[in-house]
Design brief:
It is elongated and about 105 Å long. 67% of the residues lie in helices and 0% in strands. This is Pentatricopeptide repeat-containing protein.
Length: 494
């Protein structure tokens, strides 16, 4: 099963009979203590004029008069138009049902299964459960019922906190001609985990598995639900049950991903994660990219180089994942914090070779620690590469670099960094500029000191009395006191 389970909210409330039920991204979950917010036609750009007019009628006309208004509008509909109007009319269930019935005459009573499923869905989402079951019975007579219909029912009950009713709907499926198989069970578990609580889904699976054998997807659904709720104890128990029921399966990536990601949420959980990760990798079973990112971030938080290297080697060597920039950044930062800038540089070279391009964070972290470690030759090479790739060091990094390059007798690099800083930042430049001017004077580079001092003056950056005194000493030493007076006259003019 694909580990990328994102889908839009309109899919959530638009059950398509041709789509296999699957899990949603947690960002789009509906919680049982919060009513769903329905899509509106007003939010849809470039809506066809006929569809927009019908949506306006449904949303603004009382149910008692809607059929008359629709007749007077003289709009011809197709199955596709009906479906689109129903999708955008969830907030008006009474009027939407009247529209659905009215449009049947134009379609010779042949609504699409999708339109019927939409009716079932918006009735359920609005807690009109008696009407929802009436629609289901009508669909049965038409031979239009499918698993998508019951997936909608499961979701509607779960989102309103009626998990037991969702389970009862599952139990009567076969009376309506729908198979009560593992696909249906997983659809129910998905709805409960998404819209209810994962514990309820776990409890029901323990009861029902005597007659319907769970598969890898069943446990992946439960473990994802438990992860979303941060239920570490439940996740451990469910994982153990999964191994006992279906064994180890290298293809069951979503389950391993959710299980290990849940363990990471425990304080100090990285140690248990590393033990569990080794247990998995010994069986050639690996989690997905989500876990690897979270684990590297956790190792970084705990300054755990050894753990990060174990995870990195398994990810790159064992699973042969291609890390992205964020993951490389985590490893580079971790090695920098551990004073291992040589390994960080190797990773920078590796990411470029692998076609993953460094970003401003990558460069800044490495530049910061190279400067801090006084590895100035490497820092200079990195700075030039950074600027060539149109990235700018942070202002703090620029300040530190100018100070250290001046302090170690490398005025050329100090000037290059100052120029970069001067061009890209406009506030809080005085401290760095004065360090540069003072240092250039100390190195008997008076013309350069004057040049950058004048640049500071033109930009309104204050020269300190110490810098002015140093400049005066340098002019005097060079026998050019009159030039100092000219300099001070220019300063006064600004």
């Amino acid at each position: 099963m694909n580990n990328d389970r994102k889908r839009s909210y309109i899919e959530d409330q638009s059950p398509d009979p041709n789509k296999k039920p699957h899990r949603s991204n947690p960002q789009h979950q509906l919680q049982s203590n919060r009513l769903p917010v329905f899509a509106s036609y007003l939010e849809v750009p470039n809506l066809p004029p006929q569809t927009k007019q019908l949506c306006e009628i449904v949303s603004n006309t009382p149910s008692l008069t809607i059929e008359r208004v629709l007749n007077e509008a003289s709009i011809r509909v197709s199955q596709e138009i009906v479906e689109e109007v129903l999708k955008l009319s969830y907030a008006y269930p009474g009027a939407a049902v009247k529209f659905f019935r009215w449009s049947a005459s134009q379609l010779n009573g042949r609504h699409s299964p999708y339109a019927w499923n939409l009716v079932v869905d918006f009735l359920g989402k609005n807690t009109l459960f008696d009407a929802m079951w009436d629609a289901i019975r009508s669909m049965k007579r038409e031979g239009l019922l499918s698993l998508a219909t019951f997936a909608s029912v499961f979701s509607s009950y779960a989102v309103h906190g009626r998990v037991h009713d969702a389970i009862r709907a599952f139990e009567v499926m076969e009376q309506y001609g729908c198979r009560q198989d593992i696909v249906a069970l997983n659809s129910l578990l998905s709805a409960i985990c998404r819209d209810g609580t994962a514990v309820d889904a776990v409890d029901f699976l323990r009861v029902v598995k005597v007659r319907i054998r769970p598969d890898a997807d069943s446990y992946a659904i439960l473990l994802e639900g438990l992860e979303n709720e941060g239920n570490v104890v439940g996740s451990r128990q469910t994982f153990a049950e999964m191994v006992a029921e279906i064994g180890w399966d290298p293809c069951n990536v979503p389950a391993y991903d959710s299980f290990l990601s849940t363990l990471l949420k425990v304080r100090g959980g990285i140690h248990e994660v590393l033990n569990s990760f080794k247990m998995l990798s010994d069986r050639r079973c690996y989690p997905g990219i989500k876990f690897f990112k979270l684990a590297l971030e956790e190792c970084l938080k705990n300054n755990d180089v050894r753990g990060a290297e174990l995870i990195w080697e398994s990810m790159v060597g064992g699973v042969q994942f291609k890390p992205d920039a964020q993951m490389y950044n985590s490893m580079i930062t971790l090695h920098c914090y551990s004073n291992n800038t040589d390994e960080a540089i190797k990773l920078l070279d590796e990411m470029v070779y692998s076609g993953v391009f460094p970003d401003v964070h990558t460069y800044n972290v490495l530049f910061q620690f190279l400067i801090k470690a006084r590895k100035l030759r490497e820092a200079s090479v990195l700075f030039k590469e950074m600027v060539k790739n149109e990235f700018v060091p942070s202002q703090d990094n620029c300040h530190a670099a100018v100070r250290i390059y001046i302090g170690t007798g490398d005025p050329d690099m100090a000037i290059k960094v100052w120029k970069c800083m001067f061009e890209n930042y406009h506030l809080n430049l005085a401290d760095t500029g004065n360090i540069l001017v003072h240092g250039l004077c100390d190195m008997d580079m008076l013309p350069e000191a004057v040049k950058y001092a004048e640049g500071m003056i033109e930009k309104g950056i204050k020269l300190t009395s110490t810098s002015l005194s140093k400049l005066k000493q340098s002019f005097t030493k060079a026998g050019k006191v009159s030039m100092y007076d000219e300099f001070m006259t220019k300063k006064a003019a600004h």
